[in-house]
Amino acid sequence: MPIRLLSETVAAQIAAGEVVERPASVVKELIENSLDAGATRIELEISGAGLSSLRCADDGSGIPAAEIELAVQRHATSKISTFDDLMHIQTLGFRGEALASIASVSQMTLITRHVDEKVGVRISLDGGKLVDKQPIGAPPGTSVEVQNLFYNVPARRKFLKSEATESRHINELVMRYAMAYAGVRFALFTDGRETFRTTGRGALGDVIVDSLGLELFRNMVEVVPLERLRPDLAPIRVFGYTSRPSFTRANRSQIMLFVNGRSIVDTRLTYAVVQAYHTLIPQQRYPVSVLMLELPPEEVDVNVHPTKAEVRFRTPDAVFSAVQRTVRQALSDQPNVAEVTTFSGWNAPSATIPEQMGMNISDAGRYPRQTPSQQVWTWDEDDEAFVREIPVGMEAPARPRKLPLMRVVGQIAATYIVAEGPAGMYLVDQHAAHERIMYEEFMAQFNAKDKLIQHTLAATVVHLSPMIARLLEEHLKVMNAIGFVIEPFGKDAFRVEAVPAPLADHNPEDVLNRILQDLESGKEPGADTIEEKIVRRVCKTASVKAGQVLSYDEMVGLLRQLERCENPLTCPHGRPTMIHMSAADLAREFGRT
Ligand code: ADP
Ligand code: MG
Fold first, then answer.
1. Are 232 and 165 part of one and the same domain?
2. Which atom of ligand 1 is closest in space to residue 80's alpha carbon?
3. I need a labelling partner for 197 at 20 to 30 A (CA). Which of 175, 212, 270, 356 fits?
4. Which of 168, 202, 236 represents a domain boundary (last residue)?
5. How many angstroms is it from 173 CA to the middle of ligand 2?
6. Is the shortest distance between the CB of 29 and ligand 1 below 6 Å?
7. 303 lines ligand 1 (CB under 6 A)
8. Measured between alpha carbons, how far is residue 141 from residues 28, 30, 116, 335, 550 in Å?
């Protein structure tokens, strides 16, 4: 092809790709414009995950009628005029790209009335081209409606996730802005239903309750700004809320950071938060945090990335330490924060366990349950509620044995089963083993399309936090396919009529919270189906935990079943179920060879 200049339309669509990746990016730009216009109320209406239509209305300053056509042109902005202005940006927008980009990939109608004008104006665009302009009566403020997003860039549509996923992104985004702007009233309507609302009374705590739920908020402590370390350093204020060490998550996705009212993604600062919990929570567990950072605008470069999700700090180390110190201080101001220093490697079984436990292996079967310093088993409060009895003498499934017959010797630390077989000694992680057994049983039933064994509840209504509720909506079909019977029951509430049989003894609300939160992490290896992922979570939840004393019969039952698993050597998440030491290994260790 000869070299040609791209047509304006194609160039605009390419550029739009940078800013407008998905419906949530449109919502983001529209909210930012409303906030920049000084809105105190922002109302969003989304239908079809924002692809059919999406509207953002505000009571901000409005756009002067004479400027409206300019507003939808590329590089048209009222927010900066010189390059220098970039150094101290006080607004969320400044690139003058958003409206033009969104308009080029949709059909847009913009109604606005400037505060100083008597009538408003309405323009309509199709693929970026102006098709209509009319004066119109309207209240002061602006309303932007975007229809048929990406209708003229089908390739972009193909890359979108399911509607439920796109919807959830929008929800999360609105929640984040609501947190950063607690003084602004937000309302979100999804397919005609109100899914989120804040009061705009200005208290961050209120918005956290509205977004993450009261239960979680009760488990948070307030983070208050500390004095500056040295007067010559730029002032960096950090405040917000962070979860108590007893309340943790399997992933970092709920460490939410904001810089000067902008929600940002910053792995280093996320790490600073995690660092603040060092020795307070186990490794691989993460807090929930909502942290606002305020620093002089010239200390932050927000012009790093078109969507401005990443920022650059002039003194990154100072910011890191401010976050870490402030959060740590908030935690240590709390009474009863027990440090976990004695036994940090507990979730990484190794051949040196008996040594770590300070015991002789011949004591294994008689070892008492826990010494006080090992109370770390109970760090995750909700684990306690999930302890489950293994039915004594469970029927061994009619499958060939994959492991040699093992004889139970005893249990160590209420966590590992010591067994002996023809090939030597085995240390079995009871939780991992039980998970494996349940997982294979479950998947076998599921794949055989057998009727899954369910436990029917006297229909229970559970109330979930908005975020978890959206996740459940997203996965409702799969959940129901694997043995749950759940249906929506009003805003963020669901009626649970049945659960998979292994979960019979669990509180359905805890179960749902746990499964969905864990699912969010999405860091599971392998390209397996969402069903498998959820089933793994169910098994993890229902299986016997570390720290649970097992009777001899229970241990035998567990091993008999494990021996007949398809893949007995790893748990469904890929961790080993057992450590084997052959007779030769033992002989070598004791210097007998
Ligand atoms: P930017 O926000 O980077 O300036 P946009 O393309 O998002 O660029 O918006 C272009 C201009 O349109 C803004 O600078 C502002 O003057 C005006 N504008 C957009 N949305 C609104 C709104 N909701 N209220 C008032 N003015 C708006
Ligand atoms: Mg903008």
1. no
2. 4
3. 270
4. 202
5. 16
6. yes
7. no
8. 18, 13, 11, 48, 66
Q: What is the DSSP string of 110-176?
A: EEEE-TT-SSEEEEEEETTEEEEEEEE---SEEEEEEESTTTT-HHHHHT---HHHHHHHHHHHHHH
pTM: 0.62
Angle between helices 204-212 and 466-481 (to 10 degrees): 10
CATH of the domain at 141: 3.30.565.10
**Confidence (pLDDT) at 307:** 66
Query: Within 10 A of 448 (CB to CB), how many other CB atoms are there?
Result: 8
Determine the longest span between alpha carbons in the chain, in angstroms.
98
Please work out whether the CB of residue 96 comes within 6 Å of at least one atom of ligand 1.
Answer: yes
Q: How far apart are CA 329 and CA 374, in angstroms?
A: 25
The position carrying tokens 């694997």 is: 482
Treating both helix axes as pointing N-terminal to C-terminal, what angle do 466-481 and 163-180 enclose, rounded to 10 degrees? 160
Q: What angle do CA 475, 544, 459 make, to 5 degrees?
A: 45
Same domain, 246 and 178: no
Residue 196: inside a domain: yes
**Number of domains making up the chain:** 3
Helices 530-542 and 508-521: crossing angle in degrees, nearest 10, is 130
Higher pLDDT pick, 381 / 111: 111
Going by CA atoms, what residue is nearest to atom 23 of ligand 1?
Answer: 34
CATH of the domain at 458: 3.30.1540.20
User: Last residue of some domain: 332, 360, 389?
Assistant: 332
- Tens digit of pLDDT for each residue in 406-451? 889 999 988 999 998 877 888 999 999 998 888 888 888 777 766 6
Show the domain range for 99: 8-202
Domain match, 406 and 431 both = yes
**Average pLDDT value for residue range 587-593:** 84
pLDDT in tens, 203-212: 999 999 989 8
Residue 76 Cβ inside 6 Å of ligand 1? The answer reads: yes
**Number of the ligand 1 atom closest to the C-alpha atom of 78:** 14
Q: What are the pLDDT digits (tens) for 485-510?
A: 999 998 889 999 988 887 887 888 88
What is residue 393's predicted lDDT score, i.e. its pLDDT? 34
Distances (CA, A) of 282 to 185, 260, 278, 290: 38, 31, 8, 20
Show the DSSP H helices in 213-352 as ranges: 214-218, 267-276, 316-332
| pLDDT tens digits, one per residue of 453-474 | 777 777 789 999 888 898 899 8
